[in-house]
Amino acid sequence: MLRDNVKLQLAGLEDVAIPVDVHVLRATLCTGAMTGRYTGSQTEIFRRIRKVWREAVHGLTRHDGKPMVALDVDEALWTLSREGCSKRGNGVLGPCPPGCPARPGCVTGRIQIVGTQCMVETRGPTLL
């Protein structure tokens, strides 16, 4: 927001990690940006999510010609989770529900988030 709305010239944004919360976690997992099996603390999976998004945008350019950084996908992931992924339910097997903005692209499988723990069992290339 400081770079885009206020037009501050900020350096080193590629080194700023995407802020991962339950919404960024849920959207990352539901869209299949990370798949496989994982059971454990959110702390570890948050670290992996930050790495995935840093690598995913590396070398990409935004519509305004500026290099893309992981922070550029934060709002979209948060909104996707709020408007779609969170309606999937906690621990549901199968695709996302009708009306999800990302349907039919979401993965099938179990994504369960309880407190600071999560359990993931999704299909696709293993990235967890």
Major beta sheet, specifics?
Answer: 3 strands, antiparallel
The number of helical segments is 3
Shape, please?
globular
User: Span from first to last CA?
Assistant: 30 Å
Account of the 3D structure:
This protein has a three-stranded antiparallel β-sheet. It is built from three helices and three strands. It has 128 residues and is α+β, with helices and mostly antiparallel strands. A hairpin with a 2-residue loop joins strand 2 (109-114) and strand 3. Helices cover 27% and strands 14% of the residues. It has one domain (19-122).
Compact description:
By secondary structure, the protein is of the alpha+beta class. The chain has 3 helices and 3 strands. A 3-stranded antiparallel beta sheet has the order 1-3-2.
Please supply descriptive tags for the structure shown above:
128 residues, 3-stranded antiparallel beta sheet, 3 helices, 27% helix
Write the layout of secondary structure elements.
Layout (H helix, E strand, L loop, with lengths): L21 H9 L5 E6 H16 L16 H10 L25 E6 L2 E6 L6
Antiparallel strand pairs: 1-3, 2-3
